[in-house]
Design goal:
alpha+beta, 15 helices, 55% helix, six-stranded mixed barrel, 10 strands
Length: 414
């Protein structure tokens, strides 16, 4: 594109129009693109924030990598754990025993997963200590048969600190009266709240030695949980451990254990992008009507330029410049506004809530009571690139129509 087409295109954009309606539509198109781009950036940032928040909450309780035996038991677990910790990306490891149980307190009965842990080692692979509402994880001591309950599980049972909860083990014991379930009384030593219903309602923690006695595991455990320096390296590290650790083992990572959950979030993010992109598309194609009217308004000018030697291609480029400038201006405003809003959403949302006296994410309904936001540079680049492409496409038809203007016909009545 030569400086001639760029100069004329910019001059047409800045010039005062005889038809003020064209200028009005240009402003509406510009504002529509700006709002659409800003909305896209903010929504994608909020979706990223929710994804990271949920990931941190899930992985605060779940493991990055889990090693179990072929029959869900691990005999020589100390050697397996020591071998796994030799990998440079493994930060910590902890054994566990896990089984489905029935918990009874008074008249209340609830099913839950009971996990046997070593508190001092569990604190290195999970974040239970930071999520304790009452009591402490360190109060789980071998032989004292203490238990730590999820907040929703404790609420549904009606159990509080110091109360005695009966745990019904799935393995029965043979008596003259037949097979009866084994029962053991545990004292509530603490209550945790992660913010994920799956864990707050369905998980209880006891000491590993108490779990081994309750489930008759002897020196065996259900498996070993690993924490990594970088959780995003979990698939790579799990493959490396499969190759290095010998034996009949099953190794899984968090991307496999929670694959459907995070895949659903990603699908939702993609769908939101497509829906909001339609807003940008509608605003971008307003440029079509703007340029069509501009071409009609500038028929005489186009004819004069053609008689002075301007080629059809030059005329087309002039109007592409004019339409692109409208799109780029809206794009710059939208990117600037969207980035500022996404970065400061923790200030903007509370201000709106105070102004209207309402709360978007009520604490008694949602576990995540604050709107999280995480701005990704590539999201901004992608939104800007797609939006700019839409504005360029919108300029093609009016510009082509301008290039086909017949000078003689346009000047007949001038």
């Amino acid at each position: 594109m030569s400086s001639f087409e760029l100069f004329i295109g910019l001059r047409y954009t800045r010039a005062k129009r005889r038809n003020h309606f064209i200028s009005f539509i240009s402003m509406i198109s510009m504002a529509g693109i700006a709002l659409g781009v800003a909305a896209l950036i903010v929504v994608l940032s909020v979706m990223n924030g929710f994804q990271d928040e949920l990931r941190s909450r899930i992985l605060g309780v779940a493991s990055h990598i889990q090693i179990t035996g072929g029959d869900n038991t691990l005999g020589n677990w100390r050697a397996t754990m020591a071998e796994a910790k030799q990998h440079p990306d493994v930060l910590a490891a902890a054994p566990y025993i896990m089984a489905q149980n029935m918990l009874v307190y008074g008249q209340a009965v609830q099913g839950a997963i009971v996990r046997g842990i070593l508190p001092e080692m569990e604190n290195r692979v999970a974040q239970f200590s930071t999520h304790m509402k009452h009591g402490s994880l360190d109060e789980l001591k071998a032989g004292e048969f203490g238990i730590v309950l999820g907040s929703e599980l404790a609420r549904s049972l009606g159990a509080k600190l110091g109360d005695k909860v009966v745990v019904m083990a799935p393995q029965g014991q043979v008596t003259p009266a037949g097979i009866t379930p084994r029962l053991k009384q545990f004292v509530v030593k603490g209550v945790f709240e992660v913010g994920m219903y799956e864990y707050d309602y369905g998980l209880a923690l006891i000491h590993l030695d108490d779990a081994a006695k309750l489930y008759r595991m002897g020196d065996q455990v259900s498996g070993v949980r690993l924490a990594l320096n970088d959780l995003y390296q979990a698939p790579k590290v799990s493959r490396a451990l499969m190759a290095s650790i010998k034996g009949d083992l099953y190794i899984s990572d968090w991307t496999q254990q929670h694959a459907n959950f995070f895949r659903a979030i990603q699908i939702e993010k993609n769908v939101m992008f497509i829906i909001l992109l339609l807003i940008v598309a509608v605003a971008a194609f307003n440029i079509v009507s703007t340029l069509v009217m501009a071409v009609t308004d500038k028929q005489a000018d186009i004819a004069i330029l053609r008689t002075l030697g301007a080629s059809p291609g030059s005329i087309m480029k002039i109007f592409i410049v004019q339409g692109a400038l409208i799109g780029v201006t809206g794009l710059i405003l939208g990117v600037t506004g969207g980035v500022l809003l996404a970065v400061n959403i923790d200030v903007v949302v509370p201000a709106i809530e105070r102004l209207f006296g309402m709360q978007f994410l009520a604490k008694d309904v949602y576990y995540i009571s604050e709107l999280p936001s995480k701005l990704h540079v590539m999201d901004v680049v992608y939104v800007a690139a797609v939006s700019f492409s839409l504005t360029l496409v919108a300029t093609l038809y009016p510009s082509y129509r301008a290039s086909k203007t017949n000078p003689a016909e346009a000047l007949r009545y001038e």
